[in-house]
Amino acid sequence: MSNIGIIVGREFNERVRKKSFIVMTILMPLLVVAMMIIPSLIMLHSTGDTKRVAVIDHSGIIAPQLESGEEIQYEPTDLSVEDARTLLTDYFGVLEIGADVMTNPNCVRLYANGSTSLAFEESLEDDIVDIIEREKLKEHNIHNLDEILAQVKTSVTITTFRNDEQSEEADEQTKSSAISTAIGFILGMMLYFILILYGAMVMQSVIEEKNSRVLEVMVSSVKPFELMMGKILGIATVAAVQILIWGVLIIGASAVAMPALVPADVMQSVEAMQAGTLDITQAEVDLDLLNAIGTATDVQYISTIFVWLLLFTVGGYLLYSAIFAAIGSSVDSVQDAQQLQTPVMLPIIISIFVMMTIFNDPNSPVAVWCSYIPFTSPIVMMARIPCGIPTWEIVLSLGILYASFVVMVWLAAKIYRVGIFMYGKKPSFKELWKWMRYKY
Amino acid sequence: MKELLKIENVSKHFADHTALDDVSLSIPEGSIYGLLGPNGAGKTTLIRIINRITAPDSGRVLFDGHEIAPADVYRIGYLPEERGLYKKMKVGEQAIFFARLKGLSRHEATVRLKQWFIKFGIQDWWNKKVEELSKGMAQKVQFIVTILHEPKLLIFDEPFSGFDPINANQLKEEILALRDKGATVIFSTHNMASVEEICDHITLINKSHNILSGPVSDIRRRHGNNIFRIAYRGEEESLRRALEGRCDLLGVEDEESMRYNTMKIHVEHDEDVRSVISAVNEAVELRSFDEIIPSMNDIFIRAVDGKL
User: Fold this and answer.
1) Structure confidence by residue, pLDDT tens digits, A278-310
2) How far apart are CA A337 and CA A218, in angstroms?
3) B102: closest CA of chain A, how far (Å)
4) Is A363 in the same domain as A253?
5) For a pLDDT cut of 70, what percent of chain A falls above it?
6) Same domain, A215 and A145
7) pLDDT digit string (tens) for A122-157?
8) Same-domain status, A135 and A214
9) Is residue A140 helix, strand or coil?
10) Could you give the C-alpha distances from B181 to A55, A301, B175, in angstroms and in order?
11) pTM for the complete prediction?
12) Is residue A336 part of a domain?
């Protein structure tokens, strides 16, 4: 046992002292933040462009009522369709509205000078539909129509309350679905990177030891099993330290930075909402935003998620690194490992696809099954947890994960102790199966 | 003489071939024991069994009188033929790491390493990374790592490969010194000259069998097959005439440095040797009459070819 300790110590010291470790530890959170911010920045900038649309209205009803907005600027024109199409090339397009649009709403045509997006067409349609509907209502001769419409107009914001045991002590507390989804996605992606990054690190390091023939020297004092476990656990401690540093950063940001950055009056509303005393009808700010800030500053909630993250990351890492260690031991170079690696990467990729479906339904059968299957459970379960999953489900999934790790290590060790003495051979899966049954 | 290591009827089969088939040998304490054999004969498997890297299918390995146990790896030092160190690790740190795996404390390892580094005059390598060392330098570090825990049994697989003659000689002196201090050395090599030079006993393994065992001098004498070299002054013709019918003439050795004429002969029966000598003595001026003791190289080749 002490040998494993010595090997773990070496792996840890060698890696933590490397510059790449320090750089990664600082860069990774920045990368995650950038991944969140950059798409919204791009979205902000892409809407800044106003599209000019020439309108030829044969009905005479629609054009006067079309309201130009930030996105679309409507400009009625008297040109014929043919002339407009040939002359107005600097416009985004020409919108032709048929004379009988009130009875036949399908006679609207857009002659675009470039490609249009679905979103653009939808907003054009919405604008026209609004006008047609208003016109049709007018025909009923309702008195005070505009006032009635203004009074009828409603917008609903759902406030979600969770009934599971996590919120027992604070039953009034609510979690924003939007931020839960975002957190789930970030956690899933983080796990994906960690599994691939550290799994590959184990594999590479085994290949390196095999190539430099250090293994030949080591096996005379250490059992191959101790060697493999020492490597897996050593790199695991590196990963754990890295995640802990990130955790401290994130929890610190949640507890200190967020309240400091958000304006005081908004923070007061958030606190009031969390206490259940907020008068929703009087709230000046968007309830969704309040909710999001509330969730992001809830240190206890973030910490709980963090503990799960640590457990699933370690479990997933252990399972995959055992496989990667076995692969590394059986080949001579990283290139040779490719062929064996592909089937191992497949469940990780599948997890990412399943994770995408979780945003629509965290409890779909596929999502639930994949959060129990050990090869996909770390990523899928991690993405589901922020959506509110009963604790017993999480514990069961963890139990399966760690049990399958034990089985996997046992199998991997069998391959490993044969593999480390095999040179110049590119083994197939059939061969690995044979190695597993060698007696030593 | 007391035996440090005894291999009893050890067999080891792999899926598609037999590496060792009923091999027995015993290694006297305080000797340098040559483990010879062509590539693929089963030497490495035997060494791995001694190191407890693999277990035999049948048979026993006795170390110092008891069946070999896990703790015994602390009393064995193994320098494999394919050796390696962590390239990115510093020399001193790495040596301490390996020493700790052999059961030394960090402190003890540091003290001993410093002594060896001073002895070899390589103190300034301590903080260098292994990748900065030349191959020969790295081999030296590896040698120190192998012997640092003062094992009772040392196993060297081709220890001299990669060394220049000066360093190889230094290494040889160290190995002999270790033997004199009481260590037992198993020495696996293809270099027959070094076997003659330093081995006390040998075992020759071929095709997973032990085909030849014993003290080096005994083996060489035992396999001398009545070939003699005659050095003389006089007519070659008269020598030929005198020996006609008494023995086979194998030919003239014409080495330029020789001060005398020479002739190699083969005498069929031991009883005839005296009469051959007197015949030679009458025919020419006899300066020497030597039995040619075969080199280990010859014995090795003939044994492997099955001609012994």
Assistant:
1) 655 555 556 666 666 776 667 777 778 878 888
2) 23
3) 6
4) yes
5) 81
6) no
7) 888 888 888 888 888 888 887 787 788 888 887 777
8) no
9) coil
10) 105, 67, 10
11) 0.73
12) yes
CA distance B301 to B286: 33
- Three-class DSSP category at B168: helix
- What is the C-alpha to C-alpha distance for residues A252 and A250, in angstroms, rounded to an integer? 5
- At B151, the pLDDT band (50, 70, 90 cuts) reads very high
Contact criterion met (CB < 8 Å) for A216 and B82 = yes
Widest CA span in chain A = 98
pLDDT tens for A164-221 read 544 444 444 455 666 777 777 887 888 888 888 888 889 999 998 888 888 888 888 8
pLDDT at A175: 58
pLDDT score at B278:
87
The average pLDDT across A340-359 equals: 86
CA–CA separation, B172 and A212 (whole Å): 25
pLDDT tens by residue, B204-224: 888 888 888 889 888 888 887
What tokens appear for B228 in the block?
Answer: 């003699």
> CB distance from A94 to chain B under 8 Å?
no
Contact A84, A94 (CB under 8 A): yes
- In this prediction, the answer to ipTM > 0.85 reads no
A157 occurs within a structural domain: no
Average pLDDT of the residues in B242-257? 73
- Per-residue confidence (pLDDT) for residue B256, from 0 to 100: 53
The H or E element that residue A438 is part of is none
Within-domain flag for A391: yes
* Together in a domain, A176 and A79: no
Identify which has the larger pLDDT, A236 or A272: A236
Cα distance from A221 to chain B (closest Cα, Å)? Answer: 6
Domains contained in chain A, number: 2
Residues A15 and A82 placed together within one structural domain of the fold: no
Are B101 and A222 a contacting pair at CB < 8 A? yes
d(CA B133, CA B129): 7
Q: Round to whole Å and give the CA distance between B306 and A84.
A: 103
CATH code at A78? Answer: 3.40.190.10
Q: How far is CA A311 from CA A239, A308, B1, B20, B39, in A?
A: 12, 5, 60, 47, 50
What are the boundaries of each domain within chain B?
3-216, 225-292
Interface of A with B in 6-35 (CB under 8 A): 6-7, 10, 14
Q: Which two tokens stand for residue B303?
A: 């044994």
Q: Which fold has domain B225-292?
A: Alpha-Beta Plaits (3.30.70)
Q: Say yes or no to pLDDT of A415 above 90.
A: no
> Are A227 and A106 found together in one domain?
no
Q: Dihedrals φ, ψ of B221, to 5°?
A: -70, -45
Partner-chain residue, chosen from B51, B76, B84, that has the shortest CB–CB distance to A213: B84
- Residue A18 confidence (pLDDT) above 70: yes
Mutating which of A17, A207, A216, A425 best tests the B interface, going by the most B Cβ atoms within 10 A?
A216
pLDDT score for B219: 85
Is residue A161, in this structure, part of any structural domain at all? no
**pLDDT given for residue B280 in this prediction:** 87
**CA contacts within 13 A on the Cβ side of A10:** 25
In whole angstroms, what is the distance from residue A411 CA to residue A436 CA? Answer: 7
Provide the domain limits for residue A109.
Answer: 50-152
Distance CA B253, CA B261 (A): 8
Query: For B3-216, CATH number?
Result: 3.40.50.300
A327 and A417 together in one domain:
yes
Query: Do A78 and A142 lie in a common domain?
Result: yes
Q: CB contact, 8 Å: B101 with chain A?
A: yes
Report H helices in B235-289.
236-243, 273-283
Determine the residue of chain A that is closest to B15 in CA distance.
A438
| Start-to-end CA span in chain B (Å) | 28
